[in-house]
Amino acid sequence: MYSKFAFGVLLFLSALVFAQNSKTANMVMAGGKPVHTYHKLPALNKQAPAFTLTDVTMKDQTLDSYKGKYLILNIFPSVDTGVCSASVRHFNEDAADLPNTVVLCISKDLPFAQKRFCGAEGIKNVVMLSDFRSDFGKKYGVELTDSAMKGLLSRAVVVIDPSGKIVYEEQVADISHEPDYQAAIAALKK
Prior knowledge:
This protein has 5 helices and 9 strands. It has helices at 2-24, 82-95, 111-121, 136-139, 181-187, and strands at 26-30, 33-37, 52-55, 60-62, 70-75, 101-107, 127-130, 156-160, 166-171.
């Protein structure tokens, strides 16, 4: 009798945890299979969560480091993949003509790899930042929680206005696809 009761309680608690996680977790596709992120992206029209990330010189950069500017957070798994590197190149070109705007390219890649990539590709109009020693992925909900890519970041774009408010966000439904660059840029002009 006790074991049936204990099993019932365990089953109930498991269902409760699953229900709670399904309310907050987000699902994306990777290689045709569902992968979950830690949470959903921060809500539109809310203040962007504070963060500390590491630049290519191993110095900490925070949200306040870019206060008073428009920010495009180009978030992705790794600069060593084709789609991720394409997004960095694309935003590098777009950033050259954007007034009062900084594009932050954020991944779990080590700063050394990010610096090497930028040097090899001639990337000069974006700021590469690493989440290798911070909780950015959890704060912004983009850290992958399962699959072989567990711990990396999903592909997403968040636009923050000079007052620190989120004015655009896109969780790309399939990690193998590029984000909607035009929609992100258009959010700067509203």
